[in-house]
Specification:
With about 160 residues, the chain is mainly α. It is built from 7 helices and no strands.
């Protein structure tokens, strides 16, 4: 489903980006499982969000050697940086750790697979992008997979 939403990545650059996205997913997944396995859920959620952000700074600095940082300073960019900072790094991660403490990793993680579908649908609504039939099929497959995995989840 995700490949269909992404329109079949075929160039070397797109394949490299796809590989990085899969590596990111692997790191996220392992981090979540280790968090639960090593019972780090006794750590305050706010502290975990700060640790996650702070410990990622060296990696971000290192990656800037390969991906030059281009910052555009205007009101719109400042607002989006604040939204991403507070919305994704702040609120979302605090909620994430709260959910992981109280639910199984499977129950909490599977709905996150809707992210590409939500991004495509949001781009259609807000910035009037067009949806291809292949992308529509991809969204349907993603949502069907999420629904099936949640419906038939055995605790």
């Amino acid at each position: 489903g995700i490949s269909l939403v992404e329109n079949f990545a075929v160039s070397a650059t797109e394949l490299f980006g796809y590989a990085l996205a899969l590596l990111s997913a692997l790191a996220w997944g392992l981090g979540t499982v280790f968090y639960k396995y090593f019972k780090l859920d006794s750590i305050d959620n706010l502290l975990m969000a700060w640790l996650q952000t702070g410990l990622s700074i060296p990696f971000i600095a290192l990656s800037s050697l390969f991906y030059p940082i281009r910052i555009h300073w205007n009101l719109a960019s400042i607002l989006i940086y604040l939204f991403i900072g507070f919305g994704t790094q702040g609120i979302a991660y605090i909620l994430w750790y709260d959910l992981i403490q109280n639910e199984s990793v499977i129950i909490v993680s599977i709905p996150l697979l809707a992210t590409p579908a939500v991004a495509v649908i949001t781009s259609i609504i807000l910035i009037k992008e067009t949806l291809s039939i292949v992308q529509l099929i991809g969204i349907i497959l993603i949502m069907a997979g999420i629904a099936i995995s949640q419906i038939f989840h055995i605790k």
